[in-house]
Design brief:
- With 211 residues, this protein is mainly beta.
- It has one domain: Lipocalin, CATH 2.40.128.20.
- Helices cover 8% and strands 46% of the residues.
- It has two helices and 13 strands; from the N terminus they run ααβββββββββββββ.
- The strands form two sheets. The chain has a ten-stranded antiparallel barrel. The protein has a two-stranded antiparallel sheet with strand order 8-9.
């Protein structure tokens, strides 16, 4: 006969006691079997121009050190793309963004919704669209929305007021072979587009080894 320690119990724990069986939950993390199965699925035609982005990438200024790691993964039956990344701080990955890129059959591009700094509790989001230019360059048109108290670009020395604040960004990806992407992250200013941070107008993404 099993004993149950009094106290707060998770819903899954309670369910397992009621049913008398072991209950597990799928957190959405890809297993080796799932990855192999996903690789055998044909890419839907609307996603084909974006397929070069799929993978895990070291990101940094041209000629500089890796500043972040970006991950783009197919999700079930390649119906959407999961996009996440981490900034490297003292060689440790600090979760910086994650969210979805989803095909819009009316506008013929991808809709995007990301959470920024998900571990911080800052309640910052990015939303926008992703499209392909005639030369194959993928462009993210971004609006970031900051909640009250969030630090604001470009110097991060001011905070959003009670009504929040927003900023506009443009992120480009241009393939340069199968394992390299030329990228940029620009911020809209009163006088035009400017690098979001030093070197962000000339970034290089290098595919990480899968081994």
């Amino acid at each position: 006969m099993s004993t149950v320690t009094p106290g707060r119990r998770s819903p899954l724990g309670a369910l397992s006691i009621v049913l008398g069986v072991s209950v597990t939950i799928n957190l959405g993390l890809p297993t080796c079997t799932a990855v192999r199965a996903e690789e055998s699925i044909a890419t839907p035609a609307p996603y084909a121009p974006y397929a070069f982005l799929i993978g895990e990438w070291d990101v940094g200024p041209a000629g500089g050190k890796t500043a972040a790691v970006a991950r783009l993964r197919w999700r079930p039956t390649r119906t959407y793309i999961w996009y996440s990344g981490a900034l490297l701080v003292e060689s440790r990955g600090l979760p910086s963004w994650e969210g979805l890129l989803v095909w819009n059959g009316v506008r013929k591009n991808l809709d995007m919704l990301l959470v920024l700094e998900p571990a911080s509790g800052n309640l910052v989001q990015e939303q926008g669209t992703v499209h392909v230019e005639p030369d194959g360059t993928v462009v993210r048109e971004i609006t970031a929305f900051y909640s009250e108290g969030n630090a604001l670009p470009p110097k991060w020395d001011k905070a959003a007021g009670p009504e929040g604040a927003s900023a506009t960004f443009r992120h480009t990806f241009k393939p340069d072979g199968p394992d390299r992407i030329l990228a940029s992250v620009m911020r809209k200013t009163e006088t035009g587009w400017a690098p979001n941070f030093p070197g962000s107008d000339h970034l290089v993404m290098t595919r990480r080894s899968s081994h």
